[in-house]
């Protein structure tokens, strides 16, 4: 119930904004529909690597962490540039989840580093779930205000 109260906050304001006429949009070429978010493109590069390819997996995992850190830096810079009168409550709440998702991604990396050949697929899948969680959290931050 508490979550639904938070998600409904500001609906009346959104309706007022939606009623305002929008300028005509510029014609942009349609992006190809792949069914997979562009954000996980690098995850797709490592998601099927075998236990015997652990070195390549961990190199890719480090790239994922670096990419997430870059996204966090960009979001933090945007937050710092917000005007003092901006309502940042939703932004800050969403950024907390990004931090939690970053910690979870790191934790899954530590787990998969200890994986045996028997647990490899399951532990590797946890990394994928953590990556998708982190990307979803970043998307929620971006959606919480105009970037």
Question: What is the topology?
Answer:
Layout (H helix, E strand, L loop, with lengths): L1 H7 L2 H9 L21 H6 L7 H28 L7 H25 L6 H24 L4
Helix pairs in contact: 4-5, 4-6, 5-6
Please give a structural write-up.
With 147 residues, the protein is mostly helical. It has a domain at 52-147. It is 67% helix and 0% strand. It has six helices and no strands. The model is unreliable at 1-40 (pLDDT under 50).
Question: What spatial form do the alpha-carbon principal axes imply?
Answer: elongated
Low-confidence stretches: 1-40
Question: Total number of helical segments?
Answer: 6
Average pLDDT over all residues:
77
E-strand count: 0
Q: Percent of residues in beta strands?
A: under 5%
Percentage of helical residues?
55-70%
Instruction: Give a short account of the largest sheet.
Output: none
Structural class category? mainly alpha
Q: What is the H/E string?
A: HHHHHH
Distance between the ends: 29 Å
Oligomer: single chain
Short descriptors:
about 0% strand; 6 helices; mainly alpha; single chain; about 150 residues; disordered N terminus; elongated
Nutshell version of this structure?
The protein is mainly alpha-helical and about 150 residues long. It contains 6 helices and no strands.
């Amino acid at each position: 119930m508490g979550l639904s109260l938070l998600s409904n906050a500001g609906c009346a304001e959104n309706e007022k904004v939606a009623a305002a006429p929008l300028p005509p949009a510029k014609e942009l070429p349609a992006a190809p529909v792949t069914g997979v978010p562009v954000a996980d493109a690098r995850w797709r590069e490592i998601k099927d690597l075998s236990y015997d390819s652990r070195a390549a997996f961990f190199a890719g995992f480090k790239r994922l962490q670096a990419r997430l850190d870059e996204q966090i830096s960009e979001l933090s810079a945007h937050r710092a540039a917000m005007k003092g009168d901006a309502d940042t409550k939703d932004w800050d709440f969403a950024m907390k989840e990004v931090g939690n998702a970053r910690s979870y991604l790191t934790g899954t990396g530590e787990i998969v580093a200890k994986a045996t050949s028997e647990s490899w697929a399951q532990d590797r899948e946890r990394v994928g779930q953590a990556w998708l969680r982190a990307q979803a959290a970043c998307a929620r931050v971006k959606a919480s205000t105009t970037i």
